[in-house]
Design brief:
With 212 residues, the chain is mainly beta. The chain contains one helix and nine strands; from the N terminus they run αβββββββββ.
């Protein structure tokens, strides 16, 4: 009995050590688009954001599961042209989009044991929740007849998506993520919402992950 307890304790210590040795720091280049008022009706837009992100992933309980923490920044150049007017009316400006999120990565590999951590190709789904701080600096032409949202916005965030990690060597991995964000607000594109439908934000992260 004593021998069994000692073996169990050693196995738990080794498992814990292996799990904690698989913590990763992620360095990403980000891009994002906003699907808001500009996506339909009589408005045309090309809201593309570019930025940087950093994240920290660490497994718990099961090698298929990972806590994920992320900090992201995106700078978005936005412009809207309302084309149903004989005279051109438009809005243009910039958006600074900061977010802090936490959630869970769920790996889709069939293995449920520690060997899962060492597979070279690791697809996963994820969900994140957190907060967005967004600063809008927007101006409209004198005949632009939609209300603008300027200044600072702080709203909750939900993000779901999927990703793929490819091991380069024992210390580095290549990481790709495609996600969809909702802040449950119709004002994220800088225009006061008229539809009542929340703006959808699509985000792509491409970067590398380093084991620490």
């Amino acid at each position: 009995m004593k021998s069994l307890l000692i073996k169990t304790a050693i196995a738990c210590l080794l498992s814990t050590s292996l799990l904690f040795s698989q913590n990763y720091v992620n360095y990403n280049l980000n891009s994002m688009v906003i699907q808001g008022e500009a996506s339909g009706g009589n408005l045309i837009s090309d809201d593309l954001g570019l930025g940087l992100g950093i994240g920290y992933d660490f497994p718990f309980a099961n090698p298929r599961l990972e806590f994920a923490l992320k900090l992201d920044y995106l700078w978005i150049n936005t412009d809207f042209i309302q084309n149903n007017d004989p005279e051109i009316n438009f809005m243009s400006g910039s958006i600074n989009h900061f977010s802090a999120t936490g959630g869970l990565n769920i790996y889709l590999n069939s293995s449920h044991n520690l060997a899962n951590l060492y597979q070279p190709f690791r697809p996963y789904g994820y969900f994140l929740t957190g907060l967005v701080l967004q600063q809008n600096n927007l101006t409209g032409s004198s005949n632009f007849n939609l209300d603008l949202v300027n200044g600072t916005i702080i709203v909750p965030l939900l993000e779901i998506g999927g990703g793929y990690k490819v091991r380069i060597n024992p210390h580095w991995s290549f990481n790709m993520v495609l996600g969809f964000r909702s802040t449950f607000s119709d004002d994220m594109d800088g225009i006061v919402g008229r539809t009542g439908n929340p703006d959808i934000l699509g985000i792509v992260r491409i970067g590398v992950s380093k084991k620490i």
